[in-house]
């Protein structure tokens, strides 16, 4: 009866568009339908000029919607990228309306763009640990980015009702599925194709948020460059090779450390160090290089957060997005970050409708975090 109010969580990625419909049944959440479509139908992102990308995205939105059989026209979608600025500031306590006003002036200090070129939003997070002040989350997104995005969704014959920020959508999905305690402090790393969203979540809110441009495409491009192969082949190598498995801990050899050390050495010598120039060995190095850049950004983010958190420390890292499907990635990140790393299950707390294609869902599960987080913003009974 209220079908007209239904929304679709529409995650317009640069690699694949995801469309998600959810329902609340009692205190349970259900995945009702979902669809996914390639932006580049033949998988080759170098084949088309950038002017076509817009049309390719419109077409991918339409295909994702058709595949999902979602009939809702109202969308909750998101923007992302390094031009989204999120800041956490402290302001004197004052009525909400005055606060919005004060923020416009304060914002100039924090946003590296002209204030009339950006959309500003803010959320009061609560009392600050500085007395008489409140903590405020300030988000700014360039108007041209948001307007282009809204136009894109409209061109696919849909009606945008909310435009969120991709990293917060992923955070929303984590929260709904894991229901973390107030004292849990987690770093969420959502690695897509062009953008990685990094968030630190503690006290049931985001306390650090940043988007960076090191993600899946950077890995594929590094492989293409080092192996001199076209994009499609680079993607293939990325999937088959994956991240390097951390060195054996000797368990298989009954905990014999000497044997495992020798074996580790032999493996390393027979590998790339002795000039193994197979495409797999070269790709493996390229993957590792880009992952190390990503890890260094995550580490920097954690250090920045911890430096001003008043004692809160990140207890674990949760990864999601398509790149989280990479073989061994969680173990590789964990071995470098020295904190436990886990791949998100974006449907941990959901039932799945029988209309959902189970095979398609298993193939894309890790990629649905942002779409689910978006759909959660306006989920209907
Ligand atoms: N098995 C896999 N191993 C490694 N990488 C994978 C695998 N499957 C998908 N990917 C990568 O995941 C990325 C796509 O993930 P995702 O759908 O989250 O991105 P997107 O939302 O389209 O992009 P963005 O939000 O960055 O614009 C691509 O770079 C793709 O190569
Ligand atoms: Mg994405």
Structure explained in plain terms:
This protein is of the alpha/beta class and 381 residues long. It folds into 2 domains: 1-82 and 143-179 and 349-381, ATPase, nucleotide binding domain (Nucleotidyltransferase, domain 5, 2-Layer Sandwich); 180-344, ATPase, nucleotide binding domain (Nucleotidyltransferase, domain 5, 2-Layer Sandwich), CATH 3.30.420.40. The chain is built from 11 helices and 14 strands. It has helices spanning 50-68, 96-110, 143-155, 166-178, 216-227, 231-241, 257-270, 279-307, 329-337, 358-364, 369-375, and strands at residues 7-12, 16-25, 28-38, 74-79, 85-92, 118-127, 133-142, 159-165, 186-191, 196-202, 205-212, 316-320, 340-343, 350-352. It has a 6-stranded mixed sheet, sandwiched between helices. A hairpin with a 4-residue loop joins strand 9 and strand 10 (196-202). Helix 5 (216-227) packs across helix 6 and helix 6 (231-241) crosses helix 8 (279-307). The chain is globular. Residues 249-256 have low confidence and may be disordered. The structure holds adenosine-5'-triphosphate and magnesium ion. Adenosine-5'-triphosphate binds next to helix 5 and helix 6. Magnesium ion (MG) is lined by residues 11, 13, 166, 192, 321, 370.
